[in-house]
Amino acid sequence: MGVSVNEAVSTDPVRDHPPPARRRGGRGRSALEVALLTVLAIVMLFPVLWMIETSIKENRDVYAIPAKFFNFQFTMDHFKDVFVGAGGGRSALSVSFLNSVVVAGVSTVLATVLGVPAAWAYSRFAVKAKKDQLFFILSTRFMPPVVVVIPIFLMYRQVGLIDTELGLILIYAAFNLPFTIWMMKGFVDEVPAEYEDAAMLDGYTRLQAFRRFTLPLLVPGIAATAVFALIFSWNEFVFAIFLTSSDDVRTAPPAIAGLIGGTTVDWGLVAASSVVFALPVLVFAYLVRKHLVAGVTLGAVRR
Amino acid sequence: MAGIEVTALHKRYPDGTVAVDHVDLSIGDGELFVMLGPSGCGKTTTLRAIAGLARQTTGDIRIGDTLVNDLPPAERDIAMVFQFYALYPHLRTRDNLAFPLRAEGLPKAEVRERVEEAARLMRLGPLLDRRPRRLSGGEQQRVALARALVRRPRAFLMDEPLTNLDAELRADMRTEIKHLQGELGTTMVYVTHDQVEAMSLGHRIAILNKGRVEQIGTPLEVYDRPATLFCAAFIGSPPMNLIEVEVADGKLRGKGGLVLTPPPGLPRDRDLVAGVRPEALEVTEPGAERSVPARVASVEWLGDEIIYVVDHGGERDVRVRMPPTGRFAADAPVGLRHTGGTPAVYDVKTEELVA
Ligand SMILES: Nc1ncnc2c1ncn2[C@@H]1O[C@H](COP(=O)(O)OP(=O)(O)OP(=O)(O)O)[C@@H](O)[C@H]1O
Ligand SMILES: [Mg+2]
């Protein structure tokens, strides 16, 4: 008996402080890990680094052979060119950036405003053939944009939505809606219905109960869902290039793509506009990162 | 305050599940009425129909003199406590309590006064500035109760409010709820699947099974004379021994040789089952007076009592509740004797009490 008690007592500190041998092994492994991860990060991020570098190089350094990694001439001209046109006014690119902001923002808001209540309804109420309906909603996402863009183009031409921001907003919202509904339904399922029941007994209507009690609890989920929707709309290329053509309607992806393909390509400008294009989503995702992680790990799509 | 009348309640969910088949309840003003039944028998559904959270398929619900079938929950003036307490997570205790009052638009001073009063009743003083996440289960439960009573509703509905608490706390809260209900005199419908809770709380108990009411009665009635075989097998721990009997020579005779006094008015020519409580039987030394020879199949020690499972040659073993003084070992040859009065007798076919 005494022996086993002693053993039990003496094992405890060991568990708290791992033996030195193991610790050294741990440190060795973590050094290796760091080295490997560094290499991996450099390889993965090289295009990004190169893009950033190109955007701040003088043109002749951009084309220098062998390539100049460090001793290049620094300039912000390319960034100026992104926003300021040749004549001195606003550049076509800056207009397309603005269009991107409007189209991505409005379509995301639209998808969220429609999707969240829909998800709530699917989660809370007995809807006939609920599973079939949800499957149908999801199935609209089965086809990639490339496949549906021709019929959409023809329909848009009939109703005069070709080459309009509204047209893009609508198609993006439609494309994001199924995703929003599915993802948000997972989050709503996580919020106990009893909150609303209690609120209704306390004197609120069903909708008030949703707005005042369920909705605040859904904020992380909404943030996560909206970021995904926003990223889709922001990055979308196929619809944008098929459905818009004029400079003042066009969004950034086709506009940037349009910079490549002339007789000479101003790589500095391409790189600078790409950097500008990549920033907003990064910044936005960074701002809502807390919600994002909470959201993605909380519910996600689960039934 | 008001009584609650439920007439021919029937609830069928869209997927075809009949949760409540046919329920009639007549709950008196100021009564503490318990609905007891196994899981899935429709207790919650009935309660939610009374609350207005789920619309019944057919049937009428009256609270006081008002037919409330078409009233939304907010206008029924009742408070409900859920198994999962449903305290608003982003509000402190104080605001959780005040919420229903603010919804009613009461003046600030009155809200404060009522919150203080409820907090005093449920002893929530030190918890008023905490959020639900930082309250223990028992504390959350007290807040949930306080939130129900702060509104001074016409009736309380409780859906297994103590299920998530540990045994000791549950017993305390049970006493507290009973005391509180007596103090306030507000009608309360209390749903549980715990018969001890039902027995100790209820003025009357309704036993539900498969969406139907099997019996309504005081705890004593329900215990002494279960109205159906289902109730007989459900109430009591261990429940009644059901012994198949025949009437012969003016006595009830079981297959194992037990002889019971028949109640008056037994019908003839029917297969009968007698319900005998474990405490109405006695294990004796073998060959004791009026005993039948038997054998102890197993012994359950419960500290304050012993449950013997006894094989006396009947269709099934019977359970006998004995004080912890008598000691018979498993497998020992013993005698089995009936010491109680006339047993409840059931018709095997209709499963109902016949006498
Ligand atoms: N929304 C629903 N849709 C379909 N069937 C349901 C729904 N809610 C409950 N049911 C079914 O109705 C029956 C009664 O359910 P109810 O919740 O009233 O039981 P209960 O007596 O409260 O059980 P428990 O003690 O487990 O809480 C069950 O068979 C259940 O599966
Ligand atoms: Mg229930």
Automatic annotation (TrEMBL), chain A:
Pfam assignment, any one: BPD_transp_1
Region (Disordered): 1-26
Keyword Protein biosynthesis belongs to the record: no
Domain ABC transmembrane type-1: 97-288
One of the GO biological process terms: transmembrane transport
Positions of transmembrane segments: 31-52, 97-122, 134-154, 166-184, 213-234, 267-288
UniProt xrefs under InterPro entries: BP-dep_ABC_trans_perm, MetI-like, MetI-like_sf
Compartments, record wording: Cell membrane
A cellular component annotation (GO) from this entry: plasma membrane
PROSITE patterns, per database record: ABC_TM1
Keywords associated with the record: Cell membrane, Membrane, Transmembrane, Transmembrane helix, Transport
Bilayer disposition of the protein: Multi-pass membrane protein
Family: Belongs to the binding-protein-dependent transport system permease family.
Name of this chain's protein: Carbohydrate ABC transporter membrane protein 2, CUT1 family
Organism: Asanoa ishikariensis
UniProtKB/TrEMBL annotation, chain B:
Pfam families: ABC_tran, TOBE_2
GO CC annotation terms, alphabetical: ATP-binding cassette (ABC) transporter complex, substrate-binding subunit-containing
Gene Ontology MF terms: ABC-type transporter activity; ATP binding; ATP hydrolysis activity
A biological-process GO annotation: carbohydrate transport
SUPFAM superfamilies reported for this sequence: MOP-like (SSF50331), P-loop containing nucleoside triphosphate hydrolases (SSF52540)
Keyword Translocase listed: yes
Top-level lineage group: Bacteria
SMART domains on file: AAA (SM00382)
InterPro entries: AAA+_ATPase, ABC_transporter-like_ATP-bd, ABC_transporter-like_CS, ABC_transpr_MalK-like, ABC_transpr_MalK/UgpC-like, Mo/tungstate-bd_C_term_dom, NA-bd_OB-fold, P-loop_NTPase
Residues covered by the ABC transporter domain: 4-235
Gene3D superfamilies in the cross-refs: 2.40.50.100, Nucleic acid-binding proteins, P-loop containing nucleotide triphosphate hydrolases
Keyword annotations: ATP-binding, Cell membrane, Membrane, Nucleotide-binding, Sugar transport, Translocase, Transport
PROSITE patterns found in the cross-reference section: ABC_TRANSPORTER_1 (PS00211), ABC_TRANSPORTER_2 (PS50893)
PANTHER family associated with the record: MALTODEXTRIN IMPORT ATP-BINDING PROTEIN MSMX (PTHR43875), TREHALOSE IMPORT ATP-BINDING PROTEIN SUGC (PTHR43875:SF15)
Name of the protein described by the UniProt record: sn-glycerol 3-phosphate transport system ATP-binding protein/multiple sugar transport system ATP-binding protein
Organism whose genome encodes this protein: Asanoa ishikariensis
